[in-house]
């Protein structure tokens, strides 16, 4: 990936004490490990934008929408483990970013929003895009559901203090989303030199209660065990594979955990939740395990469907760094809650289990084989079956190119979760916590900037809603978009019909996304027959820049979203209204 036109120039530090707040703020960011800033420049943040762009340690990526900046920042942070910055101006610049920032919070990313704020002398005088706690929702400037930490800095000293708070927050092993708002006039004020402690590289805290490890090892020594793994387990994939062998355990995964445990492994049962498989439910019914060890997932709706058939006979053993997580998704099931950083806990548990023989082997179990992407004779009638597309993506993107794949909300979730197979972690992403349309179509920038092929699988509705192809062209980011173009909001269309309801305005005018991509300077490839798929996907990999593959799919084929539809029926979404 080549990032062009950043405009970096050598800076002068001839007078260190005369540096502005904006310049010092850039220094703070680099000290925290930030290398990339996504955002859009506006008047209220112009001095800060200038300082960030001039800093040799920062790359500033000017996106086309602030929500796109936040989605890209979230994915860049999750891919690298580093904090990433979103920069916005006041008013709509700030509020536009909120959806992407909520996604970052739900996904566990480390994202810092740095925004402008209205200068003190202009407040309460009808200033353009006035932004303070008095004119916008107070939650934007304080800790709460969105921000782990938020503040408005009114003096240079407060900026330095805020970044010390941010540094402490980034030491958390889980995600951290913060907001530091700096009034425009404060950005240009002289700032004192940063203390040496401010430039300390952030290292995560590590904690563990040894008693929890001993108790867990004792409970797991007998009885049948199933491991239920989630996205939070991505950094300890090898240890989890060893743990499954040590416990003679079976493994099932949430959608976001695809690839953490090799999906071709004979002990792998399949995916739970949205787009999931029959294997987990069938195996659990046959095994009736005493314990299900939950690692790295909150077991939310799209991860579990709250399926009672996935519950253990005795108790969940739920490990999470947040002590408030265990027991919430399944409040009626006995749960042993262990507050710990997952990597440390699994390593300690393996040590505690060493030399302890298992009293009860898991034994064989019959379960539904993983669904295949094999397709019959290729069609050439102007509509592509989604299964044929997924089959081609599996062979060319996953197996041959080892690409990262990020799926957008809607049927893209279901097709990729159900059929794609990954053998190692870090190759699949889906935002099932917040589930915002447009997340992948923008977030793929953050993935692609890390190098290697990166593919966003998106619906036409998502592509029309939040498209950052122009940004990829500007900076020559090697991102690939595969558009499931069925001229409709497919998941809503099929879901309403499944519930016995008449779809409401779910159709979309036909759009040629290949032509749209070419109009912005990207490569555009249109696919209208299944025998064109392989050549189109291989060509997309060879472009060496942004490429959109526009696939006209059969709109009548229903995605494998049965569990989602069943969950909606349970909530009363049936013909005739709520129960």
List keywords for this structure.
single chain, alpha/beta, Rossmann fold, 3 domains, 6-stranded parallel sheet, 34% helix
Short summary:
The protein is of the alpha/beta class and about 575 residues long. It has helices spanning about 20-30, 45-55, 65-80, 90-95, 100-105, 155-170, 185, 210-220, 235-245, 280-285, 300-305, 340-355, 385-400, 410-420, 440-450, 460-465, 470-475, 490-500, 515-520, 535-540, 560-570, and strands at about 35-40, 60, 85-90, 110-115, 150, 175-185, 225-230, 250-255, 270, 290-295, 315-320, 335-340, 405, 430, 455-460, 480-485, 525, 545-550. It has 3 domains: about 15-200, Rossmann fold (3-Layer(aba) Sandwich); about 210-355, Rossmann fold (3-Layer(aba) Sandwich); about 385-570, Rossmann fold (3-Layer(aba) Sandwich), CATH 3.40.50.970.
The tally of helices reads: 21
- The number of domains is 3
Care to count the β-strands? 18
CATH topology of the largest domain: Rossmann fold
The CATH superfamily title of the largest domain: Thiamin diphosphate (ThDP)-binding fold, Pyr/PP domains
Q: What is the alpha-carbon Rg in Å?
A: 25 Å
Tell me the β content.
15-25%
- Major β-sheet annotation: 6 strands, parallel
Give helix % range.
25-40%
Distance between the termini: 53 Å
Q: Which runs of at least 5 residues are low in confidence (pLDDT < 50)?
A: 4-16, 195-202, 573-579
CATH architecture of the largest domain: 3-Layer(aba) Sandwich
The order of strands across the largest sheet is 2-1-3-4-6-5
């Amino acid at each position: 990936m080549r990032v062009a036109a950043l405009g970096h120039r050598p800076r002068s530090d001839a007078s260190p004490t005369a540096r502005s707040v904006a310049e010092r703020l850039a220094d703070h960011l680099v000290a925290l490990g930030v290398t990339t800033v996504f955002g859009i420049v506006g008047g209220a943040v112009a001095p800060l934008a200038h300082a960030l762009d001039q800093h040799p340690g920062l790359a500033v990526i000017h996106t086309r929408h602030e929500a796109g900046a936040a989605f890209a920042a979230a994915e860049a942070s999750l891919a690298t483990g580093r904090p990433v910055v979103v920069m916005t101006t006041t008013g709509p610049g700030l509020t536009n970013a909120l959806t992407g920032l909520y996604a970052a919070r739900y996904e566990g990313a480390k994202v810092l929003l740095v925004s402008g704020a209205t200068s003190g002398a202009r407040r309460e005088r009808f200033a353009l895009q006035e932004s303070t706690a008095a004119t916008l929702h107070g939650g934007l400037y304080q800790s709460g559901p969105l921000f782990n930490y938020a503040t408005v800095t009114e003096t240079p000293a407060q900026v330095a203090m805020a970044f010390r708070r941010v540094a402490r927050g980034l030491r958390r092993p889980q995600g951290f989303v913060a907001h530091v708002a700096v009034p425009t006039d404060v950005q240009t004020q002289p700032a004192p030199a940063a203390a040496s402690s401010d430039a300390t590289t952030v290292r995560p805290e590590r904690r563990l209660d040894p008693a929890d490890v001993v108790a867990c090892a004792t409970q797991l020594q007998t009885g049948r065990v199933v491991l239920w793994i989630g996205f939070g387990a991505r950094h300890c994939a090898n240890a989890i594979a060893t743990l499954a062998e040590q416990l003679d355990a079976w493994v099932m995964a949430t959608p976001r955990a695809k690839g953490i445990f090799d999906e071709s492994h004979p002990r792998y049962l399949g995916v739970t939740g949205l787009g999931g498989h029959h294997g987990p439910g069938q195996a659990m019914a046959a095994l009736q395990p005493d314990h299900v060890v939950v690692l790295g997932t909150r077991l939310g709706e799209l991860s579990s469907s709250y399926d009672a058939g996935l519950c253990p006979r005795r108790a969940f053993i739920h490990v999470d760094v947040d002590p408030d997580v265990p027991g919430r998704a399944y409040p009626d099931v006995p749960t042993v809650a262990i507050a710990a950083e997952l990597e440390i806990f699994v390593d300690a548990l393996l040590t505690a289990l060493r030399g302890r023989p298992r009293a009860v082997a898991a034994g064989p179990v019959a379960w539904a084989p993983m669904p295949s992407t094999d397709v019959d004779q290729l069609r050439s009638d102007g509509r592509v079956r989604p299964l044929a597309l997924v089959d081609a993506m599996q062979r060319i993107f996953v197996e041959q190119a080892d690409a990262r794949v990020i799926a957008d909300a809607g049927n893209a979730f279901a097709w990729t979760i159900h059929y794609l197979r990954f053998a190692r972690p870090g190759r699949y992403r889906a935002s099932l916590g917040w589930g915002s349309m447009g997340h992948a179509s923008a977030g793929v920038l953050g993935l692609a900037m890390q190098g290697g092929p990166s593919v966003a699988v998106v619906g036409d509705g998502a592509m029309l809603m939040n498209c950052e192809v122009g940004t990829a062209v500007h900076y020559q980011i090697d991102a690939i978009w595969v558009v499931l173009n069925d001229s409709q909001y497919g998941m809503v269309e099929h879901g309403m019909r499944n519930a016995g309801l008449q779809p409401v305005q779910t159709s979309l005018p036909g759009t040629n996304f290949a032509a749209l991509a070419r109009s912005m300077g990207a490569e555009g490839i249109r696919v209208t027959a299944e025998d064109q798929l392989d050549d189109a996907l291989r060509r997309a990999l060879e472009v060496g820049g942004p490429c959109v593959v526009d696939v006209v799919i059969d709109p009548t084929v229903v995605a494998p979203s049965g569990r989602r539809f069943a969950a909606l029926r349970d909530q009363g979404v049936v013909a005739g209204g709520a129960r």
